[in-house]
Amino acid sequence: MNTEYSESDLELQIKLLQDTVQKRQNKTLTIAVIGQHGCGKSSFINTVMAVFSGEYHERALVGNFEEEGEHVTRRLTRYPKEKYVTEDQCLIYQYPTLVDMMGFQNAGDDVVKKTLDLIFNGCLKDKTKLSKGNQNQRNVLEELQQLTYNDENHSKVDRIIFVASAKSRECPTELIKAVRSQAMDGRRDIPVFGVLTHADQIDEDDTDFPEFEKKFKSSLGLNAMRYLLCSSYCDEISRENGRNPNVEVPVMRFLNQVR
Ligand SMILES: Nc1nc2c(ncn2[C@@H]2O[C@H](COP(=O)(O)OP(=O)(O)OP(=O)(O)O)[C@@H](O)[C@H]2O)c(=O)[nH]1
Ligand SMILES: [Mg+2]
């Protein structure tokens, strides 16, 4: 992550991204951001919304409960463009709807698969509180059944971004398998992308990282176009002086592929 980007790189990428989004015309993409808890999903979503809107706000609640293992995001939350860009921008550009949710455990059991299925098919209402997944499976499945929501206007997921932290050394392969199988369940194939956050916390001489990165990419079947190693806006990387090209240019390039 040593590449340095300039203001002009940023301007060019903003233009390219706006062109791509504008070309979508009537169709708004729904992008689900999935991963284990604390990996940086909400921070990444806030960074993406900052990229699109030009302003950073902590819209998706971010937190650090590493020690306690607490989940910060507890509910499924959709961020349609109306929530993060101005009315004028909404009229011109088809910015995507981003879906934040609770972190999953690294498991591929029936509860995880059913939950993913409901999310991917837009069958869970906004603000649905998802179970932590450590309760009796049958009870949770019954609960999920009751939460299922059938509405013709529901927003099915069009793209999946699987997030993990680059600081982690354990690839969540079971969860990845479950996501891939539900994304390709026969009715339709949902393209899956992969993001490693916390790039700022990887040392140059970290010899374990390349192995972890390789495993993450191969588990998700990613080529270079569908993979991003990045740092999100956070306490260490603030946005006080306006857009930070080193944060935003890589994210913009990546979003240009998630089309
Ligand atoms: N240094 C650094 N910190 C980050 C980065 N991304 C996220 N963080 C921090 O990591 C912690 C967890 O981030 P969140 O975005 O809340 O993670 P999450 O996956 O949404 O967590 P849950 O909602 O609990 O599942 C917070 O303290 C963030 O500030 C990053 O790229 N670099
Ligand atoms: Mg979160």
UniProtKB/TrEMBL annotation:
Residue ranges of the TM segments: none
One Gene Ontology cellular component: membrane
Pfam families: IIGP
GO terms of molecular function: GTP binding
Endpoints of the signal sequence: none
Identification of the protein by name: G domain-containing protein
